[in-house]
Amino acid sequence: MLDKGDRYNKDKPELSMVMEAGAALEGCARVLAFGRDKYSRKNWLKGLPLTSVVDSLQRHVVKFMNNEDTDEESKLAHVSHILCNALFLAQLYHTRPDCDDRVRL
Fold first, then answer.
1. How far apart are CA 35 and CA 18, in angstroms?
2. 70 touches 55 (CB < 8 A)
3. Which residues does 96 contact at the CB level (< 8 Å), separation at least 6?
4. Over the stretch 5-19, which tens digit does the pLDDT of each residue have?
5. 78-95 vs 50-65: helix crossing angle, rounded to 10
6. What does each C-alpha distance from 49 to 14, 100, 102 come to in angstroms?
7. What is the mean pLDDT of the chain?
8. pLDDT the model gives residue 60
9. How many other C-beta atoms are found inside a 10 Å radius of the C-beta of residue 65?
10. Taking CA atoms, which of 6, 19, 76, 81 is between 20 and 30 Å from 68?
11. Which residues lie below 8 Å from residue 19, measured CB to CB, with a gap of 6+?
12. Which residues of the chain fall below pLDDT 50?
């Protein structure tokens, strides 16, 4: 029998579960590649106002809900753009508080 090392992963997120959404991740990666070619790789990590990310996300949601499946410019699925914008929003929210330009009432 092979000895195995200890792992203390209780209460840690199982990031591998994200890989179970392969088609969605592939679409998001294609949007990221489109952005890399249009701007540069990691351009979004320089920081984007959160409201601009939400605006882009919502534009894609509106087009999708109006039965438009494919983005005219990128020729990629609107749902892939939605996921990519959601990824940007979540990452920037968690790591770049300076990008939070929401109106405080």
1. 22
2. no
3. 47
4. 888 888 999 999 999
5. 160
6. 29, 6, 9
7. 96
8. 98
9. 9
10. 19
11. 25
12. none
